[in-house]
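Note to self: keep these together.
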Amino acid sequence: MVENINTKQKQPVFEWDDKLSVGLAEIDDQHKEIIKDLNEFYHHITGDSFNYESAYEILLKFKFFVEKHFECEENYMFYIDYPEIFEHKRLHEQMCDSIDDLLDKLNNEKAEINELLALINMWLSEHITIEDNKIVKFAETQPAVSQFAINDIIKPFDM
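Structure:
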């Protein structure tokens, strides 16, 4: 069972910044949720209440959300004919593999805090700010896509 962690009482370590925006409300909202989840995970693994079982549950919930998010991004990249879609998809697969490795280590109580923090850092400093912004730059060169088409492609989901 996941412990009730109230991150609203704790200062977020990572905050949304408009520089992270990809220009699509649905994906931006998903990125905001990812940042919220990463803050929850960070506060848990660095706090006094750390235990492997609840860290595992938080990371597992995060993984399920991230997989849906990746599907949305990949559908969008396919729609706009993003030339680096396969490379980006491989990054998504590597991220999921990293999460799976950490889940295994958490399950066996062998995860190191530094490994967990590295995942958070990689996500924010590399994936969203660099890789996802490459999609934005490419999309800006493409003809406008209607919001109706985007909603049909991205398929919003419950967060």
